[in-house]
Design brief:
A five-stranded parallel sheet has the order 2-1-3-4-5, sandwiched between helices. Helix 3 links the parallel strand 3 and strand 4. The longest helix has 23 residues. Helix 6 packs across helix 7 and helix 6 packs across helix 8. The protein has 239 residues and is an alpha/beta fold.
């Protein structure tokens, strides 16, 4: 098991923790568990974790708050679980920086597929990033630090991004002022390891606009080219 990905399951339901732990260990993962945010941070302080399966409804600090805090402190990917199935919960989870989302009740096989897909994206990213000649991009008052996985506003606020949003923004800043088709953007941001998480590139663009545009309904940074795709309009400087 040494060298296999280490998954941290955070859920206040002991039966779910035990079920997922047994299932993931059987599939070759190392697994730790925690019942709440305090226990989660104890595990993070003692072990190197490759991915967190995080329940939305937790005692004390809930999953959304924990995910938001994690995004300001680390790049550990997060797959969020919730007993709710409403669209607003999915959107909130992704806005807080979750990399994927699964509503309870769920199939353990589907969760496994999503965990593997997120890990593939994260593990393939350093190679793609390593090919870039620069790590810091500035545009329209924003600063994207690829080495730190951080997006900083003009007034110094760190804006949390999911892995998908980060990959998409990095692809855009590396190809400014060029019309990029949806397929081309998906190639640049994820390669062809498209997963069940890839509902559409339009959804990813919409979420990213809500974070970087002054008015997402009238975007000036990421413009839609009807029939063509998207264009990243600002001048981009490199460091």
């Amino acid at each position: 098991m040494e060298g296999s990905p280490h998954i941290l399951v955070v859920d206040d339901n002991r039966e779910i923790r035990d079920l997922l732990s047994r299932f993931l260990v059987k599939d070759g993962f190392r697994v730790s568990t925690a019942a709440d945010g305090r226990a989660m941070y104890e595990v993070l302080g003692e072990s190197t974790i490759d991915l967190i399966v995080l329940d939305l409804m937790l005692p004390g600090e809930d999953g959304l708050a924990l995910c938001r805090r994690l995004r300001t402190e680390s790049d550990i990917p997060v797959v969020m679980l919730t007993a709710k199935g409403e669209e607003i919960d999915r959107v909130l989870g992704l806005e807080m920086g979750a990399d994927d989302y699964l509503a309870k009740p769920f199939s353990t096989r589907e969760l496994l597929a999503r965990i593997k897909a997120v890990l593939r994206r994260v593990q393939s990213f350093p190679t793609a990033r390593g090919s870039a000649k620069v790590d810091v991009f500035r545009f329209a008052g924003w600063k994207l630090d690829a080495a730190k996985w951080e997006l900083e506003s003009a007034d110094g606020v760190i804006v949390p991004l999911s892995t998908g949003e980060f990959d998409l923004l990095l692809a855009l800043v590396q190809h400014p002022q060029r019309v990029l088709s949806r397929d081309r953007l998906l190639d640049l941001a994820r390669g062809r390891a498209a997963t069940v998480f890839d509902r559409s590139i339009d959804t990813q663009v919409s979420r990213l606009r809500r974070k970087i545009e002054e008015n997402p309904k009238e975007p000036k940074i990421i413009k839609t080219i009807w029939g063509g795709g998207y264009v990243f309009t600002p001048q981009v400087s490199h460091e």
